[in-house]
Amino acid sequence: NAGVMQNPRHLVRRRGQEARLRCSPMKGHSHVYWYRQLPEEGLKFMVYLQKENIIDESGMPKERFSAEFPKEGPSILRIQQVVRGDSAAYFCASSPGQGSRGNIQYFGAGTRLSVL
Amino acid sequence: QKEVEQDPGPLSVPEGAIVSLNCTYSNSAFQYFMWYRQYSRKGPELLMYTYSSGNKEDGRFTAQVDKSSKYISLFIRDSQPSDSATYLCAILETSGSRLTFGEGTQLTVNP
User: Fold this and answer.
1) What 8-state DSSP symbol labels residue B101?
2) Residues of B at the A interface (Cβ-Cβ below 8 Å)?
3) Within 13 Å and on the Cβ side, how many CA atoms surround B86?
């Protein structure tokens, strides 16, 4: 019973390149969340998605960042024209979306993005 | 004022000690109260969650919530070196689905 799967685990990009981070939720989970953990800081919410819908993107930077969760396949967090300040650990979480534990979130191992 | 404040630590204790980790929060709309454990360079692992005032016990771990004081705690009994990690409190709003995290407390249990 696989947990939340994120890939790649480590990603190195040069300034100006694009970064694509992928997340497959736990089996049976239909809700996906992305969080960012900057060095020496806590986890900050970015975006909450259900299949084919963005529910809450209030934590996402207005420019260069986008997220999707298509009908088929993993959720993608996309960062265009990366800058050094984007270097961080990006975590994906998923939840069932219904039932008594509907909003209880389980996290993946994260993708560590380094921008050179 | 941060929505969730967590004692920053770091905390260093001998093996077998009782550990107390604490957070306060400001938003009365918060509904669920979670504790996650994060080992170095790993993802947060859910330890416990509760939604009501009082105590909830799971093995060596006890989560305590006092909604009147907006205060949550995690107690670890008979602490082990394998408990050495960063502990994160996280709170979920009634109306939404985003988790608001504390800054984390780094715990080291010395053999």
Assistant:
1) E
2) 32, 34, 36, 41-46, 49, 88, 90, 92, 96-104
3) 20
Paired tokens of A58: 């209030």
CA B81 from centroid of its chain's CA atoms = 18
- pLDDT truncated to tens, each residue of chain A (116 aa)? 579 999 999 999 999 999 999 999 999 899 999 999 988 788 999 999 999 999 999 999 999 999 999 999 999 999 999 999 999 999 999 998 877 677 889 999 999 999 99
Give the Cβ contact number of residue B98 at 10 Å.
22
How many angstroms separate the CA atoms of B101 and B88, rounded? 7
Which of B98, B100, B103, B105 to mutate to test binding with chain A, by most A CBs within 10 Å of its CB?
Answer: B98
Q: What is the DSSP string of B4-59?
A: EEE----EEEETT--EEEEEEE--TTEEEEEEEEE-TTS--EEEEEE-SSEEEEET
- Inter-CA distances, A83 with A49, A67, A108, B34, B42, Å: 25, 18, 24, 33, 24
Q: Which candidate, A58, A41, A23, A37, places its Cα nearest to that of A113?
A: A37
State how far the Cα of A15 lies from the Cα of A29, in Å rounded to an integer.
34
- Closest A-chain CA to B98: A45
Q: Strand A88-95 vs strand B11-14: parallel, antiparallel, or unpaired?
A: unpaired
Q: Which residues, in sequence order, are bridge partners of residue A107?
A: A93
